[in-house]
Amino acid sequence: MLPVEHDDPINAKILAISEDKIEGFVREPFEEIAIRSGVDVDVVIARIAAMLRAGTIRRVRQTLLATNLADGALVAWKVPVDKTDNAFEWMFQHDPFSGHVVLRSTDTVSAGSDYKLWTTVKVPRGFSLAGHCELLAQKVGAERFRLMPAKGIFTLGVGHVRRRTIEPGSKADAPAKMIPVQVVDLSELEWKVLLALKREFAPEEIRPTPWAARAKEAGLSLDEFYRVAEQLNARKIIGRFSTFLEHVKPSAGGVRVTRFNALFHWAVPLGREIETGGEVGRHHILTHCYWREAGPEFKNVNIMAVAHGTDKRLLLDHKAAIDRHLSSSGLPVSYTNVFWGGRSEIKPSEISPQVYRDWLREMESLKR
Fold it and tell me: What's this model's pTM, rounded to 2 decimal places?
């Protein structure tokens, strides 16, 4: 019986690489994990498959920079208290275009603290993001929602195992560079390869040359599949090949990867967003950092970042270190806050236009 907890020494070495260090499209991702972790490739394959079967790893998949493929936003929802749980379940179970579904709270009553339900939403090109959220609001009885599309991305990764030992204030030598959000158009062939690429791997698919079966599924030779995938990679459409840990719920053995999920908010002056995002985003503890406009409901917050950990006090120490760095860098902050994640479910957002059309027809049929 292979060890399946994330803190087993060999598993930890593998996960420190496989969570978020394999960038772009790689022909032999498990071999690359083996080379970079120093663990034999057969062991890497066996351990990842075992952790996936046990639920320690939630999913293994090629991620996409979906912000470049579909219109998306972080959405805060104001839902009556007695409808919140049902709204959460509906978003998770019935909307394939909602990715993260999270209940959030603040330590004190503050700007936006009555927006308890937070989701990420993406809709394919040609469809309305606002219209989609209006439909969702009707379905779940939301009173209001606030759309917060990303205007720029400074940090995007996972790496929970690697981040467990990071000290407050630890940061890169240079500010994070902002990746602008630019939606791209794809050909029918590119969509075919992309949809085959992004599907989650079953445990039995964790093997050498994992893309061979996906190429066959797409009706392409492996060389043609590689050619198109590498073109997509060059166009900055491919994200990382990642193993996603179950970081919300305890494992079968009762071990948690993280316990707290903090969404940090900062409001900075107009025109200083890129500079501030770069300084925030260079901090190693952060898994995400974006420029988003939260509006007056949230005191005009425009820089947001996410950090995970097992100790709430330590996460606040990390934020305090970021705050001190902003102050010492001469970057004024008019308002800041922390929204803590509670109950959450995470799934990849669907981005296929055809799936969206089918879903809309299903929603229409439910009205009859």
Answer: 0.78
